[in-house]
Amino acid sequence: MQLALEATMQSVQGAERTGSELDDIDALVRTYRPRLLRFVTFSIGDQDMAESITQDCFLKAYNGRANFRGDCSVNTWLTSIAVNLIRDQQRLQKFRFWRQARATAIDITDAASFLPSAECSPENRMLVQEKAQQVQTSLLALSEKQRTVFLMRFIEEMELSEIAAATNMPLNTVKTHLHRALKSVRAQAGKTI
Amino acid sequence: MTGATMNHLTDEQIDDALLGDLAAEAAGHLASCAVCQQQLIAARMPLESFKAVTLAWSERRSATMPASLQERMLHNASGSRRRAWGTAAVAVLALMVALPFGMHHANGVREQSSTQAAAPIAQSLQTEASAEQIDSDNQMLHEIETELSSNRTSSEAMELQEIGDQGDGHGSARMVRD
Ligand SMILES: [Zn+2]
């Protein structure tokens, strides 16, 4: 009971915070840009285009902030907007995005060295880096939809129902895509280097 | 303790667990089986690694994103996008006026103060600007030009612009390149 009450208090405070959060575009960008940029980048595989789409996403969110009903997290809401923008762009691009991106793969090689040392001991760093790159490689083998739902689930930690809503896909289709994606990841990550 | 007698989870079930979609019976087994728990941790490890490393990558990249992109975005949000970004020259002028006065906020109060403050600067540009001012203006001009051109280098960006010029139905999606 105590816990339930606290949860309610937190969600009320959360809603208030969210209201002002969306009104301050600076704070919005500061708080969510890295995650959003990551989602878009690894969805489309084009860093420059990802930056542009990320900016568009914040503009669209800011202009449409009255439509945010608070029934999901701000991050989930932004991710949903990003998915639509990515879809628009991919239509315009005639799906050339990812093919082109293979030629100029995003280089995360050194990124593990930026991890806080509290989270990641030096011994683990190499393994973490290796596994991360294997997952990145496995993303190349996925379809657009598989990649999108994979990133939503495992990067943005969205619930399956949230993913279904954001992508306009039936829940079972979302699950099927995710299972295929995980199979691909397991096949890559199972390889020893 | 029916769970302990059940077979270990299949790969498919481990994936179900990763998805948060594991059936009750299998979940019961998992709760009491150290072998399967270890399997799940091993399966989760690459995913967690990818998440952590890509966030580190993105945070670094985000930190180096040009601040003026944000300025531009806010300028666009103020509703004068078309006018300000009709030509590169106008865009550069708009930034030269807007940047020093920090259009960091799209709210009315800041808008007003930046408009008021912009007037004397525009005048000083027209009359006798000091050599220092000219230098710093030129430097800013150069930076803006570099940034504008870097946004246009890729072939797909050019294509996008063509499509945008034809249609203009997706204004907000194309603001950077207008
Ligand atoms: Zn077991």
Describe this structure in words.
The complex is a heterodimer of chains A (193) and B (178). The termini of chain A are far apart. In chain A, helix 6 crosses helix 9. Chain A is globular, with a radius of gyration of 18 Å. Helices cover 74% and strands 0% of the residues of chain A. Chain A is built from 9 helices and no strands. Chain A has 2 domains: 2-95, Rna Polymerase Sigma Factor, Chain: A (Orthogonal Bundle); 106-189, Orthogonal Bundle (Arc Repressor Mutant, subunit A). Chain B has 178 residues and is an all-alpha fold. Among the domains of chain B are: 11-63, no CATH class; 134-178. Chain B has 9 helices and no strands. In chain B, helix 5 (67-84) crosses helix 6 (88-98) and helix 6 (88-98) packs across helix 8 (131-150). The relative contact order of chain B is 0.07. Residues 78-129 and 147-178 of chain B have low confidence and may be disordered. Chains A and B meet through helix 2, helix 3, helix 4, helix 6 and helix 9 of A and helix 2, helix 4, helix 5 and helix 9 of B.
Strand content of chain B: under 5%
Helix content of chain B: over 70%
Spatial separation of the terminal alpha carbons of chain B:
66 Å
Total separate domains of chain A: 2
What is this entry, summarized?
With 193 residues, chain A is mainly alpha-helical. Chain A is 74% helix and 0% strand.
Write the layout of secondary structure elements.
The complex is a heterodimer of chains A (193) and B (178).
Chain A: H1 2-23, H2 25-44, H3 47-63, H4 74-92, H5 97-103, H6 122-140, H7 144-154, H8 160-167, H9 171-189
Helix pairs in contact in A: 2-3, 2-4, 2-7, 3-4, 6-9, 7-9, 8-9
Chain B: H1 2-5, H2 11-19, H3 24-32, H4 34-63, H5 67-84, H6 88-98, H7 108-126, H8 131-150, H9 155-167
Helix pairs in contact in B: 2-4, 5-6, 6-8
Zinc ion (ZN) binds next to helix 4 of chain B.
